[in-house]
Structure formats: structure tokens, C-alpha cells
Design brief:
Distance between the termini: 28 Å
Number of helices: 6
CATH architecture: 3-Layer(aba) Sandwich
Oligomer: single chain
Structural class: alpha/beta
Largest sheet: 8 strands, mixed
Strand content: 15-25%
CATH class: Alpha Beta
CATH topology: Rossmann fold
Radius of gyration: 16 Å
CATH superfamily: Alpha/Beta hydrolase fold, catalytic domain
Order of helices and strands: EEEHEHHEHEEHEH
Helix content: 25-40%
Number of strands: 8
Shape: globular
Number of domains: 1
Length: 226
Amino acid sequence: MDSVQIPVAGATLDGDVLNGDVEVPRQARGVVLFAHGSGSGRRSPRNRHVARELQQAGLATVLVDLLTRDEERSDARTGRFRFDIDLLAVRLSALTDWLAKYEPVADLGMGLFGASTGAAAALVAAAGRPAAVRAVVSRGGRPDLAGKYLRSVHQPTLLIVGERDEVVMQLNRAAMRQLGGEASLATVPGATHLFEEPGALDQVARLAGDWFARALPAAGTAAEHG
């Protein structure tokens, strides 16, 4: 695993960086950038669980703290940043640009995996980076918070929701009708919002892995699809 520091887009302080972890399996066939949910970060046990499974499936993974350390401390006190979808989307868009030049994954097709509010940021970033981002997966996400950008998302998008997460299920169904491209809603039986039930995250990882395997171009062909 490589630990990286990435200059912040839209930083409030000069010299701020985002901290990230990049894992590239041998003969990787795609790369997935994670967008964590409100109040979370790159050490989220749920996202790390899914990332490990995607790595086993031959996908490189990138988990990055979308807030700087100062912003994280402020957010812990005030909740100021966690629902700032515009800020998170700007950060994700900058990260997609950075990954396109990061040699270990530069020739791989890229997907975004968003959880909770991170799903909205992923969809906004996908709308603004149609050539770079090839697919989106949302886990227990709030795609409704992407608002007007939904209709501009033409990449294949999979929305994964727990069967017992009724409010989020309704929000995802409504958002799916607004997406501009191929979209699918997958329900994990018996799961609640955090997918804490035995085997629930494994199902999320399988669904996401299958989606990315189908949607991402093979290594060395990403440029042909631009």
C-alpha cells in the first residue's frame, strides 16, 4: 500500500494536503476512488472492507480523506463540512485529475464508490468529469443531494441500498429516475443503513465488483474511450 499526500483543491490554508492510501494489485483492471460519507474518512471500516474485496477482484483502490486535518477538527465540533456537497465534489474532481497522472494507475479505467453523502459528491464529480469517470457505485447513499447534476450523469450508476433502510430507499428510487444514463438499484436483503448485518458488506462488495468489472475499460484502453 502506498500512502500519498495530495495538494488540496480549494484549500482554506496554503500547503494543506489530503492524505490517502493507494493499493494496486498485480495486473489491476481498473481503479476505484472512494468517497466517504459524512463524518467519516479513509479509515472507515466499511469502506476498507469493500476496498479489500475489490482488490481481491483485481481492482486498485484509492481511499482519501476529503477534508484536511484542520477541517476534520472543525467538522467534528461544528459539522460544517460534512454536508458541503459542493466542496466534497470539488475535492473528488481534483482527485480524479490527480489519479489520471499518477503513474501506478494512470492507464486504468476509473470508477467512483460513494457512501452516504459521499455518493452525492461522487455523482457531481462524475457529471463534471465524463471522460475520466467510467462508472459510479453508491452504498447507502444520498444521491438526491446531487440535485440538478443527476441528469448530467451518463455513466453507468449502481445504487445499493439496504432492504430495511426505507427512507434512503425512497430517496434512491426518486434519484434513479433523474439520472441521465444507465442506472440500477440493488437491494441487500435484511440490511439496514450501515450494512452491519453479517454478510451484508460482502454482498455490497460483490455487487460493486461486478458493476465495475463490466463498466471499466481494460488497462491500456482507457485512452481509447476518452
